[in-house]
Structures are given as structure tokens and as C-alpha cells.
Amino acid sequence: MVRLQDLPTEELFTSGHRLCAGCGAGTIMRMTMKALRGPTVVVNATGCVEVASTIYPYTSWKVSWVHIAFENTAAVASGIEAAYKVLRRKGLWNKDVDVIAIAGDGGTFDIGIQALSGALERGHDFLYICYDNEAYMNTGIQRSGATPHGAATTTSPAGRKIPGKPEFKKDLIGICVAHGIEYAATASPAYWNDYITKVRKALEVNGPAVIHVLAPCPVGMRFDPSKSIEFARLAVQTRYWPVYEVERGKYKLNIKVPQPKPLLEFLKMQGRFTHLFQPEAQRELGELQRWVDENWRRITALCGETT
After folding, report:
1. Helix ranges restricted to H, the chain
2. What is the pTM (predicted TM-score) of this model?
3. Which CATH superfamily groups domain 4-302?
4. What pLDDT score does 307 carry?
């Protein structure tokens, strides 16, 4: 695990960006840049981070940075990694360059999953980071494959017939691990040491690695912007967001939660779940609790832990 005093003081993701107050993604980008080990190229899909950090002619990035479309984050990262490999083979380049692909849940779970799957299967040497704010927050808070059951979004509105999104969240890490990659992990910005350690570990992998990190969004999730880290911590402590890693197929639970806080505490702080506390929606609360419990049992069983 990294120590605070060992982190570089230089800020490679600078202040002055236009991300919303309390945006978890901004904190995650700053942490990510603290983990770099050398020359780095960041490939950034369209999304909250991209539109808010590179408003022409300004940029918050002090590393090489490429903006690409929603759907081809992993494809462009693959091309850049392959280009440096060719340059080294031809004797035109002699440095190792880390390639980090960054996209939100919409650009990962849905629009970009085909490119990601292809890149993982081909074995390109890059780190893919999905900052998950659980909806298409940049374009109007539409539901994504990462949006949890029961959440109200502009395309899964809570009404008399349908109480929010009827489907459940995809298992992104499970999908990635199924490709046989060496390293994959989940993380939360509330546990900075765990996250930065995982970024560094992922960069050391000779091949693709994936990190799925929770990115609290006060606007879309509708909570007090001053409570983003509290939100990220509560997500873990209620077992809603298990924090674990998978190295060469072996699962390890990084943050144990033997006595979880009530899931209702986490849900009540978010406006997107307000409707679930009406008498007619009690069944949906039970369904969400059931999913959280089953997901925790599944993950801990894979990790060889008892609950």
C-alpha cells in the first residue's frame, strides 16, 4: 500500500476544471495522476471528465491526452499501445509509455463494451478505468447498464406503473475477468490508498488491466455535494459496492464489511431513490436489498471469505 508522504506533490490533473462541485470523477482523476510511474498517454472518451476538463483552449491535463468518441476508448488505446510497440521494434523509441483509457459507465458498460472486449481479447498493454456515476450524467441523466435497480433517471422515470429502472446493474468486472486478463479491480474514492495502490499495480501488468471505480455524482444521484466522500464510503460500508481485486483469476476482498450499515441509510441520502420510500414501492426496496445481499455473497464466496 502507498503512503501519503510518498505521493508526488506535482498535480498532473489541475484545478480550474468545470466539473460540478462534489464531483467524484474529479477526485478520481487527481488520484489517478498521483499513481503514474513515467511517460503516460491518457485516452479520454466523451463524457463528464472530457467536456469539463478540456474546454478549448484550456486543459487540466499535464500529460499527453487524447479525446475520442464515446464508443472507441479501448480501440484508440489499443492503437496507441501498438504504435509505441512498433516504434520500439524499429529503434525509433526507447522508453516505456503507459496508456490509460478513461471512460464513464455509459462509454464502458454500453456504448464502448464491444471495443473493450476486443482489446481485452487481443491482450493490449493498457489500463482501462471506468469511473462509474451510474448514468449518462453528461447528457441528461439517462439510465445506463450501470444504473441500479429502482433509480429514477430521465429515461427510467419513477411513476405509478414503473418505479424507476426495472433492470439490475451489470457485472463489469465479471465480464472483464472472463476474458482471462491478469488484473481487474473495483475501488472507491473514499479509500484513496486502496485506489492508488490498484492503479500502480494495474500499470505494472504486462497486458490489459481494468479498474471499476465508483464516482459519486451529486447532480444525477441528487445528494449534498459536500457529502461525496461520505457517499462513497457508505456505498462500501452498506455492501452496495464491494471493493475487491482479481489477480490471475484469484479473487481477494480488499475491504471487509463484517457489520454492514443499513442499505436504507445509503438510499435515503439520494434523491433518485426518494420514490422507493412510498408505500406502493416497498417491494422494490426489498428487491434492491436482495440484489445487494446476493451480490455480496457471490463476491465474498469467490474471494474465499465467509459472511
Report:
1. 24-33, 48-53, 73-89, 113-122, 172-177, 192-204, 218-221, 228-237, 263-268, 282-302
2. 0.97
3. Thiamin diphosphate (ThDP)-binding fold, Pyr/PP domains (3.40.50.970)
4. 66
